[in-house]
Amino acid sequence: MTERTPRIVYPLLVPDASIAAIMIVDGLILARNHWVGAAYAVGGLFFGLRFIRDLSTRVTGVGVTQLTWRGRLRLNWVDVTGVVRKPRSVLLSGAGGSIVLPIESFSDSNETMRFIYSRLPPELGVAADAANS
Fold first, then answer.
1. Angle, to 10 degrees, between the axis of helix 35-55 and the axis of helix 14-31?
2. Using an 8 Å Cβ cutoff, are 97 and 71 in contact?
3. What are 4-59's pLDDT values in tens digits?
4. Spatial distance between the Cα atoms of 86 and 113, rounded to a whole number of angstroms
5. What is the average pLDDT across 56-71?
6. Phi-psi domain of 68 (left: phi exceeds 0; alpha: psi -120 through 50; beta: other)
7. How buried is 20 (Cβ within 10 angstroms: 0-12 exposed, 13-18 middle, 19+ buried)?
8. Which of 25, 37, 112, 126 suits 2 as a labelling partner, its CA being 20 to 30 A distant?
9. pTM score above 0.85
10. Are the CB atoms for 93 and 106 separated by under 8 Å?
């Protein structure tokens, strides 16, 4: 029996995309009259880029890939050197760079964390955390 890999639930990403679109459109309308509108549009771009980052994240049995400014970043589980758990995400660090996993965007965040912890190198000492999450 093969284990299912965690999948991002795309409707959970809709709020970021909606906020981005509204902020960009409103910002462009306001930018004609105020500098605040330009700042508003830039904020919308931030949400839009976060949406694209989250949408491009792929978790597999081999590792994680994510679209970044410099192309697609691939981080194999055996190459992970650090894990930082945040309220809505997990930061995985390795020699090739860092990947932010949007845990709240996965269909089952607890199952996703167990999946991640079960594949990390034992020397990180996070396997015990998987049982507690």
1. 160
2. no
3. 677 666 555 556 666 667 666 766 666 666 766 667 677 776 766 777 777 788 88
4. 12
5. 86
6. beta
7. buried
8. 126
9. no
10. no
> How far from 27 is each of 22, 46, 53, 78, CA to CA, in Å?
8, 13, 22, 44
CB atoms within 10 A of CB 109: 17
Confidence of residue 1 (pLDDT cuts 50, 70, 90): very low
Q: How far apart are CA 28 and CA 70, in angstroms?
A: 27
Residue that is written with structure tokens 């880029």 in the block: 49
Closest CA to 84 of 106, 39, 116: 116
User: If you write DSSP's letter for every residue of 7-29 in order, what string do you get?
Assistant: -B-GGGGHHHHHHHHHHHHHHHH
Q: Which two tokens stand for residue 59?
A: 């978790």
Nearest-angstrom CA–CA distance, 88 and 70: 24
Tokens 């945040």 belong to residue: 86
Cα 14 to chain centroid distance, Å, stands at 14
pLDDT at position 131 = 42
Q: Is 19 exposed, middle or buried (0-12, 13-18, 19+ CB in 10 A)?
A: middle
